[in-house]
Amino acid sequence: MSAPLDVRIYYEDTDCGGVVYYGKYLTYLERARTEFLEQRGIVLTTLMQEGLQFVVVHVDIRYHSPARYADVISIHSEIEDVSFASIVFKHRILRKNTDVLIAASKVKLACVGRSLKPERLSSELLARLSEK
Questions:
Q1: Which residues, in sequence order, are CB contacts of 97 under 8 Å at separation 6+?
Q2: Mapping DSSP to helix (H, G, I), strand (E, B) and coil, where does residue 25 land?
Q3: Where are the domains of the chain?
Q4: I want to staple 119 with a disulfide (CB 3.0 to 4.6 A). Which of 43, 54, 96, 113 is the partner?
Q5: Hey, which CATH number is domain 5-129, 3.10.129.10, 3.90.25.10, 3.40.50.300, 3.40.50.2000?
């Protein structure tokens, strides 16, 4: 597991009731995955220059408690599974410095080439993904 990503909730993230709009969590999860990968030396722009990218193929998210304007949330990310061409991330979003679970999610990414067809993860990528 990598260091959690802290995100401050801005007014633009909320609905008219001051609660984070449900779709906004997908943006937060994307940021957390990017940071997770970069902490392991996997830079997405470098992968794209090599003709590879990760695309989301499945998201499962369960909302437990609302986050509100001015809250700070912490997104904890870990890899649950890796196959020859995909990665499953498990995310937990907590109110910062508490055990209050806001949302839990699993996101499956496929590794694809320029043609958007699945590509095998290299042994180097696999090694970096398995780093603690």
A1: 74
A2: helix
A3: 5-129
A4: 113
A5: 3.10.129.10
Bridge partners for 63 per DSSP: 103
E strands in 18-130: 53-63, 72-82, 86-95, 101-112
The pLDDT-based confidence of 30 (bands split at 50, 70, 90) is very high
Sign of the dihedral defined by the CA atoms of residues 82, 84, 87, 88, in that order: negative
CA distance 28 to 10: 12
Q: What is the pTM of this model?
A: 0.93
DSSP state of 88: E
Instruction: For residue range 58-98, list pLDDT tens digits in order.
Output: 999 999 999 999 999 999 999 999 999 999 999 999 999 99
For 53-63, what is each residue's pLDDT tens digit?
Answer: 999 999 999 99
